Amino acid sequence: VGTMTVVDDTVEYDISCSEVNLELKLRLTDRVPWSSTSPTSGPMGFASVFAPLLPLNWHVYSTASSAACLLIYAGRTLATTGVAHMEKNWGISFPQGWIWCQAFARAEKQKSLCLAGGTALPYIQAYLVGYRSPRCHWDFRPPFTVAALGVSPFMSIKRDSGAGTFTLTVQTLTRKLVIQAEAPSSSFIGLACPLGDGHRPMYAFESFKGYTLVEAWTRCWPWQSWYLIEKGVCGINEKGVACAAVEFGGAYSHL
Fold first, then answer.
1. 143 preceded by a cis bond (ω within 30 of 0)
2. How far is CA 213 from the centre of its chain?
3. pLDDT digits over 21-37, tens only?
4. For site-directed labelling of 143, which of 68, 70, 86, 115 has its Cα 20 to 30 A away?
5. b/e per residue, 124-152, with b = 16+ CB within 10 A?
6. Residues with Cβ < 8 Å from 224, sequence gap 6 or more?
7. 44: β partners
8. Separation between Cα atoms, residue 96 and residue 94, nearest integer Å
9. DSSP code, position 25
10. DSSP codes of every residue in 178-194
11. pLDDT at 81 > cutoff 70
12. Taking Cα atoms as reference points, which of 118, 111, 57, 107 lies closest to residue 85?
């Protein structure tokens, strides 16, 4: 049994399961919206007006909320705090294959990475990407992040789910982002996903031990050379351990 309450920018979850004697209370505050200038906007941008016509939609409610968690299990109580990412998917079904990644830099709350994409239509790949840092507040979306038959002048993707790695390069005329992600192959767990005929177990595989390296490049004019303005890891906890989420789903997962 679960309930969710939203008041202003505070979200509270209360989940209980009497069969295993478990209770979870989660309180999320200090929401960091996708857009600092438009709090209701998300990664889809202008494409959100076509949401009823699209097979799948994606909205990120917060890239880094403050989280307080109380877990009661078998008579034992655990209280902790952290940072939380909140998002929502809705539509007819998940795509045939996809990649999803989300990362914080815990010591630097203003820094985060969030991306999702894959097979949008037969022979067509599309991605949505957002990168936030003290220096960059960058979004990448179609038409720049669309590839037909694996070919695009603005995007390239290399993935190896068996090795737990992918490299995504996306760019506009003046901005370019290079994302390298990897996670130990043994750290992936199977997840059920909502498809057209219901939830299918083990349709996606996700790790919370991912390592992401992000390079941000820029130039003033399309004919100029690229200039590196930022390079660093995103998704490291207080102990210096990689904790980004990396997911391969459907046809994009070898499992």
1. yes
2. 15
3. 889 999 999 998 999 88
4. 86
5. ebbbbbbbbbeeeebbbbbebbbbeeeeb
6. none
7. none
8. 7
9. E
10. EEEEE--GGG-EEEEEE
11. yes
12. 111
The two structure tokens encoding residue 179 = 């994302």
25 closest CA partner among 43, 6, 2: 2
In degrees, rounded to 5, the angle at the alpha carbon of residue 91 between the alpha carbons of residues 86 and 97 is 85
CA–CA dist 252, 255 (Å, integer): 9
Q: 16 forms bridges with which residues in the sheet?
A: 23
Torsion of CA 245, 4, 201, 84, to 10 degrees: 0
pLDDT higher than 80, residue 147: yes
Closest CA to 104 of 249, 214, 252, 250: 214
Cβ atoms of residues 246 and 252 within 8 Å: no
Using CB atoms within 10 Å of the CB of residue 225, give its burial: 0 to 12 exposed, 13 to 18 middle, 19+ buried: exposed
Token pair recorded at residue 230:
């930022």
Question: Can you tell me the distance from the alpha carbon of 176 to that of 62, in angstroms, rounded to the nearest whole number?
Answer: 24
Look at residues 129, 71, 62, 118 and name the one whose alpha carbon lies nearest to residue 93: 118
56-73 sheet: strands from edge to edge: 2-7, 10-17, 22-29, 56-73, 76-91
| Nearest-angstrom CA–CA distance, 32 and 85 | 9
C-alpha 152 chain-centroid distance: 22
Q: What is the pTM of this model?
A: 0.90
> Would you say 255 and 123 are in contact if contact means Cβ atoms under 8 Å apart?
no
